[in-house]
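Quiz preparation item.
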């Protein structure tokens, strides 16, 4: 194995950076901290559609500002996650009565 870092790719051959900036628990500081992370060299951002711990809208605000500064979306790896009902608070990004498939689709659409 040696010192060679493990290279990961998605099912459709997108390279996954080995180190990501996590956006959990940043609240209103999310936008500024994402900007700082990218300016410091991060090319990957981890978030989730779980309002109790993450603020994806503020991650989006950072992406808009980064694009205006020349760091376009295609230069960044952005990862979100689906969180089931037991990990959410009252602010659900999907219809709790919908099928799990529909919940994932609604959560993803909300993340976008």
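Solution:
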């Amino acid at each position: 194995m040696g010192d060679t870092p493990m290279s990961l790719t998605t099912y459709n051959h997108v390279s996954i950076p080995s180190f990501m900036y996590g956006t959990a628990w940043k609240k209103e500081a999310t936008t500024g901290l994402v900007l700082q992370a990218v300016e410091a060299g991060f090319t990957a951002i981890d978030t989730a559609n779980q309002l109790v711990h993450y603020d994806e809208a503020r991650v989006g605000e950072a992406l808009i500002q980064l694009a205006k500064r020349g760091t376009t979306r295609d230069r960044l790896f952005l990862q979100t996650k689906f969180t089931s009902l037991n990990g959410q608070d009252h602010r659900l990004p999907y219809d709790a009565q919908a099928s799990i498939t529909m919940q994932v689709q609604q959560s993803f659409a909300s993340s976008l």
